[in-house]
Amino acid sequence: MISFYPPNYAAHVELDGKSITLPKRRSWYGARYVKGDVSMRMMKSGALTLKRAGRKATQCTVK
Q: What number of CA atoms fall less than 13 Å from residue 44's CA on the CB side?
């Protein structure tokens, strides 16, 4: 589950039952959120990729 709450520009993600706040980082294309070994990239097309160290990337579509 991913949530965004104004006015802060961070993604609030729930992974494996734990809440993580990913601060927004600069990116050439789309939006990128990173904290530690967790990163999330959201493209303007609606494609979303979630990466964690030691695991395969998860691809999703934003609705």
A: 4
